[in-house]
Amino acid sequence: MGTLENFITYCIQGLGMGAGMILAARRLTHYFQLESYQYHGYFQTVGRQIKRAVDPCLLLGLCYLAVFSAWALLTAPAKGETAFHLATAAVAAGLYALAGALIRRRGMKQKEKKPFALTARMKRLYGALAFLLILLPALAGFLTRWDLIVLGLYGALAACFLPFLVALAGLIALPIEKLIFYLYFHDAEKKLLANDRLIRIGITGSYGKTSTKFILAEILSQKYNVLATPASFNTPMGVTRIIRERLTPAHQVFIGEMGARHVGEIKELCRLVHPTIGILTAVGPQHLDTFKTIERIEKTKYELIDALPDDGLAVFLNDDGIVKKLYDQTEKPKLLAGDEQGDAWAEDVTVSPAGCHFTLRFRDGGSIPCDTVLLGEHNIRNILTASLVAKRLGLTNQQIARGIGQLKPIEHRLQLLKTPNGIGVIDDAFNTNPRSSQEALKVLSSFPGKRVIVTPGMVELGADEDQYNEAFGQAMAEYVDVAVLVGKKHTAPIQRGLMARGFPPENMHVVSSLEEAVAVVNGIIRPGDTVMYENDLPDHYSES
Predict the structure, then answer these.
(1) Which residue(s) pair with 509 in the sheet?
(2) How far is residue 226 from each of residues 170, 191, 350, 370, measured CA to CA in Å?
(3) In 251-391, where do the E strands start and end?
(4) Most C-beta atoms within 10 A of its C-beta, which of 235, 271, 402, 516?
(5) CA atoms of 238 and 232, how far apart (whole Å)
(6) Is 130 helix (H, G, I), strand (E, B) or coil?
(7) For residue 482, what is the enclosing H or E element?
(8) Cα–Cα dist 418/218, whole Å
(9) DSSP string of 57-93?
(10) 127 membership: H or E segment, kind and range
């Protein structure tokens, strides 16, 4: 074949192989997205889901090898027949793409809990993948006069190493992402600081920050026009987006939730928000797989307090542990919620399946009888923290009480759902840490009838994860009647904890998916019973 025909053949083959790999990479790019494009988390997920991540790649590599071998054998006798070469190359390329499409379709059959989103950033990642898998090998093959057999072997080998190529594509796109983030970040910062009367509040903690954010926003809305980051928007890019899209000059208060999985991430959020009030809800064993130690978590959470101006306000929720220690060492203006050692506490507490009643007391005087539909004593503590901030910002006792009375159940956080058949359903899917899980068990125990828990256990707890899950199982044995555990491998420590406390084996059901768990629950639950869904692992942790 001539030079032009050779080039066209390379392009056809490269296009087919690359298209197939891009289609087959759908699960891998979803993992990358779920891990917020962090390489450490992505490779952890690939290692944890090695069969799901690697098997399709190996299968695709074998398909490429088989198709290319057949194409090479078929065209070998027809050395000078250009049209025949190009036609068979096109057929082979179509088969490559078809193989990738079938693998993609197979991977998408499983229902995704957090669906893949084809965001602008994901489109740029796919552009980098296309450069790596289509343009680069075709050009390299033509310019270096690769034998077409080498191109075929390259395609088969590249398919097998697709998890690494996805990461490499992310690295290629990284400078563009950094530039875009820098521009958006500083645009949001400028917009936030343009209103010098805007009250800027940052909330962080290992747990409780999202609930406290919603509680505080509801109470403050009795006096102010409040913008709070929605749902769990707590990353620099997420907070940046909310500021740019939703903040208006009419807003008087901005509340930014600040999450972190690495040291320095709270500091980055503070550079964006410039908080004048900082709230620290808790320091505990959350995201230990990335932080490694509690000390690093403590340091990261305290970045919020460090970032406050000297005349700012630091608000702490007393835990008689790390948070109390941090309160004691803080020299800036500060408040402490939680008990009579601090500035706000609760008395005459009554907790029931209908919610909570208590008397809110302030150290500087005044008391407020409060009623809320929120479940659990831990939510009372969150309310105390929010009320302290509201009091400092000039709300009256009546406004605070009205705000507390108007609180609505927070989605996926001990949210009691009404059902027409008299069965109680508690959705606690977003609570994933030892402290919150213990509180959830106490809430469930207050309900009448048979008490059923559905859980896959807790994740991201580092080397002590099994220990925490076993303790969770032991506590579960005290509070629940039936345990439905999702994922045989990951829930093994919970099973040990249940058995150690003599939990009846016939009341423990181990299933492989949430769908199976629901089927088990539907078979055993009756009107008057209550089922709680405690934690729902994302797709990159699921065993099914």
Answers:
(1) 484
(2) 37, 16, 30, 22
(3) 253-257, 277-280, 313-317, 334-337, 344-352, 355-362, 367-372
(4) 235
(5) 9
(6) helix
(7) strand 482-486
(8) 23
(9) HHHHHHHHHHHHHHHHHHHTT-TT-HHHHHHHHHHHH
(10) helix 120-130
Paired residues of 280 in beta bridges: 204, 316
Closest CA to 283 of 231, 229, 208: 208
* Residue 251 C-alpha from the chain's centroid: 28
CA dihedral 189, 193, 198, 203 (to 10 degrees): 30
The single residue listed with the structure tokens 């008490």 is 451
As a whole number of angstroms, the distance between CA 13 and CA 140 comes to 13
Task: Please provide the size of the chain in residues.
Answer: 544
Q: State the distance between the two ends of the chain, measured CA to CA, in whole angstroms.
A: 50
SS (H, E, C) 188-235: HHHHHHCCCCCEEEEEECCCCHHHHHHHHHHHHCCCCCEEECCCCCCC
Element (H, E) at 484: strand 482-486
Q: Which residues contact 358 (CB under 8 A, 6 or more apart)?
A: 346, 347, 348, 349, 350, 370, 380
In this structure, are residues 437 and 534 in contact, taking their beta carbons and an 8 Å threshold? yes
Pairing of strands 334-337, 313-317: parallel
Distances (CA, A) of 102 to 22, 90, 97, 116, 236: 12, 18, 9, 18, 37
Structure tokens at 49: 């889901």
pTM of the entire predicted model: 0.83
Structure tokens at 307: 């970032």
Residue pair 236/181 in contact (Cβ under 8 Å)? The answer is yes
Token digits for 363? 């150290």
